[in-house]
Amino acid sequence: MSLDPTAQYALAYALTTTAGLRGFLTLLVASVAVHLGWIHPSATFAWLGSDAATIVLAVFAALEMLADKFPGVDHAMQAVYFVARPVAAAILVGATVHASNSAELYAMMAAGGLNALIVHGSASTARVASTVTTAGLGNTALSFLEDGVTAGGLFLAFFKPIVAAVIALAFVVLLVIVARGTVARVRALAPRRDR
Prior knowledge:
mainly alpha
């Protein structure tokens, strides 16, 4: 699969959005895509397509998805994901975009990491609200929803990257709006302290 620059940017944006929900799964799919010849990373990121990287990413993706299904464990892992998902997004940008110079690539990698951080932070906010309102029981349902959104996003990213990027942008905007509303509702539920 050969992508023009617009499709490369669209693919990168869509992947950084899914990385905000499932960083290791998105890296795994990108690794498989390198194996299949769907993406062609520069020499710097060619390691992503190695057999060893695919195996390690498969293990971490399975652990990421499994740990996310257990209340309490999911919250502990959110701290790890706070760093891992933006880093995964930066790697994904580096592996999918062929920039004209290093400065441009690094700027896009930083933007991709920031996008994943926004998605992760917003989703984490929903997790906190779920924990407060359902004693953590709703977190498993949210995890399965995130799995489905990620799978759909990954499928679209590789087969219709521009459509995926537009949907990813709408998703990020919606996620931020929902997160802001969730914070406001949680604050309203919290007991007020008179000073």
